[in-house]
Amino acid sequence: MRQFNVTVNGHSYQVSVEEVSGFSAPAPAPVVAAAPVAVPSAVPAPVEAPPAAAAPAAPVAVEGGEKVMAPMPGTIVDVKFTVGSPIKKGQVLLILEAMKMENEILSPVDGTVKQLLVNQGSSVNSGDVLAVVG
User: Fold this and answer.
1) How many angstroms separate the CA atoms of 29 and 133, rounded?
2) What's the CATH number where 108 sits?
3) Would you say 84 and 132 are in contact if contact means Cβ atoms under 8 Å apart?
4) The pTM is what?
5) How many domains does the chain fold into?
6) Proportion of the chain above pLDDT 90, given as a percent
7) Of 24, 31, 60, 114, which is most buried with the most CB atoms under 10 A?
8) Residues near 80 by Cβ (< 8 Å), separated by ≥ 6?
């Protein structure tokens, strides 16, 4: 057994730890005196109904062409092309900010930007269609 002093929330405790070799079940945790708990009043608190689920968004009609999907949730910080613009495969179509990093969304094919379904500042989820190129 090894002895340790542990401080939790300003209170010091002396604990003993037994080293166990092999693959056995963990030893039970030492019993520590519980902190005082406030006793609730005799009047039960009102129970709130769970919030109603949001209605799913209506599907967006997409013209024929190659769909450009959001790889992750984030915010569109820049749109590099407009509808009708010619674009080459690998060119940056949009900039998607996720977790404070800017991610370039590239055109998957040569063609024309047929549809832009987002604007600068739009929030998107993973898998959302951002644009159509064809």
Assistant:
1) 60
2) 2.40.50.100
3) no
4) 0.54
5) 1
6) 49
7) 114
8) 91, 92, 93, 94, 95
